[in-house]
């Protein structure tokens, strides 16, 4: 498939997990992708790995690393401006970068609260504000934000849940503001996904990643946790022309869990 031939995209937090899977799929379907991550060497490695795919070269896609701290206003503005200048525009932004600093409220520090809000929510404001200038001038664009099932509440994640709930309100508001310029803004809200982040959470709780996933799977009607590629597929749909009349929505991807 080449749904994104000639399209230009930036994916944040793209060195691993959902971000990497999304950047890879976009490039394999013909897009020029900015693989953006705070970890510069990891972003370089991911971009090289994506560019080496036979599908990417066959379908005209490309990938290049952007080492950026998404909580740094100046760094975001500079990176987006550089990408737009090099590519001649930007069509898709996937706001995926995120971290966890889990703890019960009486143990949670202000620093851990602030860091999670900055990385998971404020970064989306900075990146979206930076790209919308070009998208408005073009008269088109797609922004897809990654929220979480934790937006509904999750013990030990007051900071993360607040940020991910904020993502949904942010998404709905941007859809109202940018819709008149033919820019759609939507979100996905995954449940449990097999990523390095969830593996790290398992370690912090004294369990192996396999045990942690098995516990989660037991509460999911489909009987398993999600793979990053499954979340990426939904993100690509919302970024595609097939979703041209979907705006301001949050799609929950949790295997039927309630």
Write a structural description.
The protein starts with 7 loop residues before the first strand and ends in a 5-residue tail after the last strand. The protein has a seven-stranded parallel β-sheet, with helices on both faces. It has nine helices and seven strands; from the N terminus they run βαβααβαβαβαβαααβ. Helices cover 48% and strands 15% of the residues. With 258 residues, it is α/β, with parallel strands linked by helices. Helix 1 packs across helix 9 (228-239), helix 4 packs parallel to helix 5 and helix 5 packs parallel to helix 6.
Short description:
This protein is 48% helix and 15% strand. The chain is built from nine helices and seven strands; from the N terminus they run βαβααβαβαβαβαααβ.
Helical content band: 40-55%
Category by helix and strand content: alpha/beta
Our estimate of the beta-strand percent is 15-25%
Extended strand count: 7
The biggest beta sheet, please? Answer: 7 strands, parallel
Average residue pLDDT: 96
Number of helices: 9
Question: How far is the N terminus from the C terminus?
Answer: 34 Å
Low-confidence stretches: none
Order of helices and strands: EHEHHEHEHEHEHHHE
- The global form is globular
Strand and helix map with partners:
Elements: E1 8-12, H1 17-28, E2 32-37, H2 40-51, H3 54-58, E3 62-67, H4 73-87, E4 92-95, H5 110-138, E5 141-146, H6 158-178, E6 183-190, H7 196-204, H8 209-217, H9 228-239, E7 250-253
Parallel strand pairs: 1-2, 1-4, 2-3, 4-5, 5-6, 6-7
Helix pairs in contact: 1-9, 4-5, 5-6
């Amino acid at each position: 498939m080449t749904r994104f031939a000639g399209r230009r995209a930036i994916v944040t937090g793209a060195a691993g997990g959902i971000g990497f899977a999304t950047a890879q799929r976009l490039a394999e379907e013909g897009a020029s992708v900015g693989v953006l991550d705070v970890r510069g060497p990891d972003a370089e490695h991911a971009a090289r790995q994506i560019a080496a795919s036979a599908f990417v070269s066959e379908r005209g896609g490309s990938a290049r690393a952007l080492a950026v701290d998404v909580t740094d206003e100046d760094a975001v503005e500079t990176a987006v401006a550089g990408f737009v200048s090099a590519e001649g525009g930007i069509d898709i932004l996937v706001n995926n970068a995120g971290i966890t600093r889990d703890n019960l409220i009486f143990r949670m520090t202000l620093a851990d609260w602030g860091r999670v809000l900055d990385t998971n929510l404020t970064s989306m404001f900075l990146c979206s504000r930076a790209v919308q200038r070009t998208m408005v001038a073009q008269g088109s664009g797609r922004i897809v934000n990654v929220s979480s099932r934790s937006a509904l509440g999750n013990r030990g994640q007051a900071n993360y849940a607040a940020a991910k709930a904020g993502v949904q309100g942010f998404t709905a508001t941007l859809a109202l503001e940018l819709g008149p310029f033919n820019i759609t803004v939507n979100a996905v809200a995954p449940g449990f996904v097999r990523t390095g982040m969830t593996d790290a959470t398992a370690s912090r709780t004294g369990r192996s990643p396999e045990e942690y996933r098995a516990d989660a799977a037991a509460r999911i009607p489909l009987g398993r946790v999600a793979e990053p590629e499954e979340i990426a597929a939904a993100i690509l749909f919302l970024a595609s022309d097939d979703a041209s009349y979907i705006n301001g929505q949050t799609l929950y991807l949790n295997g039927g869990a309630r």
